[in-house]
Structures are given as structure tokens and as C-alpha cells.
């Protein structure tokens, strides 16, 4: 039974002894990686737009404060101007004083003084009128700037809303494709499952699953992570270790007996990115991928599970189908 199960990365359906049910909307690891990259880009865009909206908000606020200060100044000058206008002696009184001053010497002196005060008042009045005019001009400028700032804010907010909607869509798209935890890293035939083994190859517990496929079949990263080691010899042959952090839990995955390694130590990977090809290196009697999933750090035992868990319990094919549940 196990030996006949086909594991497929490319499609969400697993089949036994038959061609994979390929369709036009077939899911591929490349599609998953593309979606993840679009998601990451739009996340950066949303972040930038949020900052733009905040900046625009601060600008509107600053312009509002300037407008308020300007209005207060305008009110003050306007009140002063009214006071000057009220204090200004009407023309007739002035004429009466002029006549009076021609007959009374004391009145003449008084008139001269009064006339000087009147001239000063007129000068202050004219100055206040000029200030008022200048302030009105400034107010018009601030109003225009406020309109512009409001428009910029509205545009930034509109963009943010559109991007946020895009982000929601992409998250849904990704959730529909991406397996919850790990992705079955290659397409092929399950030639050996996880669990007790005969001991004929030097181990009594098989810590991973074997996916048999022809040399050169692509292998993909089972989850987002970082390559922590790449080795080219030993029982595993050419092999890769990837460390993952999934919802705060550390995991390590191992991909062994590879034909070709296409990643470097330290490289960051997205789920579904190619890491190399299936091969027949190390202790291997035919081309296959030996895939291990360790909870936490790599911890191997030849007679027990060690740190490993059954990949079939934690890995799914694209589209989120459990390989076990998909057997029919
Ligand atoms: Zn194996």
C-alpha cells in the first residue's frame, strides 16, 4: 500500500498507480513562491503607505495649527483697527477746534497737540490696516496649503485602503495554496515510510520518508526557513539541512541522497523554492529523496524516532491536502 502511494507536490490530489490529475489550474511550488513574494511586496507597500498617511496627517495638523494662530493674530489686529477707527476724532470737531484756536491762544496749543495725536493715530491705523491685509494674504496661502494637504492625505489613504484589500486577497490566495506547516518536498512514489525498519541497512528505525523519483526531479523547501548546513558526503550523500521557525516552534528538515544541491549555507528560503535535485548519493540503492522532519534541532537515532516526527503527519501537498487523508 505505502509503496504505491504517489506523492505529488504539483497537484492537490494524490492518486494511486495513475497519472496525476493535471489540470489548467494546477498548483505548482513556483506559483506558491510567486504568491508569497507578491504578498511580501504588498506588505512592504502597506507599511510605506501607512507611513505616508501618518505623514500627511501630521502635515494637515501642522497647517491647521498655523491657520489657528493666524486667525488669532487677525482677530487681534482687526480689533485694534476698530479701536483706532473709534478713537479717531470726527472731521467736524477738528474743524471747530481750528476755528476756536484762531481766537484763543490756549486753545491753539491744545489744537496743535490734538492734531499731532490725531496724526499718530492715523499712522497706527494705516499700519494696522496694512498688517491686516498682509495677514489676509497669508491666510489665503494657508487655506490653499490646507486644501492640498487634505487632498494628499485623502490620496494616501485611498492607496492604503486599496493595498490593504489586495493584501487580504493575497493572504486568502496563499492560504488556499500553502500547506499549514510543511509541504511534501518532491513528487514521486513513497518507497519507504516512517517507522521501524528491518535493520538490514544499519538502522532499526527509519527517521524519514523516502520519495522515489528519477534523478534530476526537483526538490523544494518544505517550509520558509534558512539553510543551516550543506554537506556532500557520508551516509546521507549530498544533503541539505533547513531550519524553520513556524509559529514560534523551531524545526529542522533534512533532504538526503541528492544529485545536485542548488542552495548555499545561510541562504533564506521560502516554502516551495527549489533547493536541488533527487539523486542516488550516499547510502542509497536507487534514486530517491530521504526526507526527515526534526522537532527542534537535528537529533538522529538509528533505533528510535529521536527528534523526528512522521513527515506524513505534518506535511501536506499544495492545496492543503493531507497525503494520508488523500489516499483512496
Ligand atoms: Zn530513507
Strand content: 15-25%
By CATH's scheme, which homologous superfamily of the largest domain applies? Glucose Permease (Domain IIA)
Mean pLDDT: 87
* SSE succession: EHHHEEEEEEEEEEEEEHE
User: Alpha-carbon distance between the termini?
Assistant: 11 Å
Instruction: Please give the domain count.
Output: 2
Number of helices, where a helix is a run of at least 4 consecutive DSSP H or I residues:
4
- CATH architectural arrangement of the largest domain: Distorted Sandwich
The best one-word shape is rod-shaped
Describe the fold and architecture.
- It is a single chain.
- With 328 residues, the chain is of the alpha+beta class.
- It has 2 domains: 44-177, Orthogonal Bundle (Helix Hairpins); 180-316, Glucose Permease (Domain IIA) (Distorted Sandwich).
- It has helices at residues 29-87, 91-103, 105-177, 311-314; strands spanning 6-7, 182-183, 188-192, 195-196, 205-206, 208-212, 218-220, 225-231, 238-246, 249-261, 268-269, 274-278, 288-295, 308-309, 315-316.
- The strands form 3 sheets. Strands 1, 3, 6, 7, 8, 9, 10, 11, 12, 13 and 14 form an 11-stranded antiparallel β-sheet that branches. It has a two-stranded parallel sheet with strand order 2-15. The chain has a two-stranded antiparallel sheet with strand order 4-5.
- The chain starts with 5 loop residues before the first strand and ends in a 12-residue tail after the last strand.
- Mean pLDDT is 87; it is low at 10-24 and 324-328.
- Bound molecules: zinc ion.
- The site of zinc ion (ZN) has 5 residues, from β6.
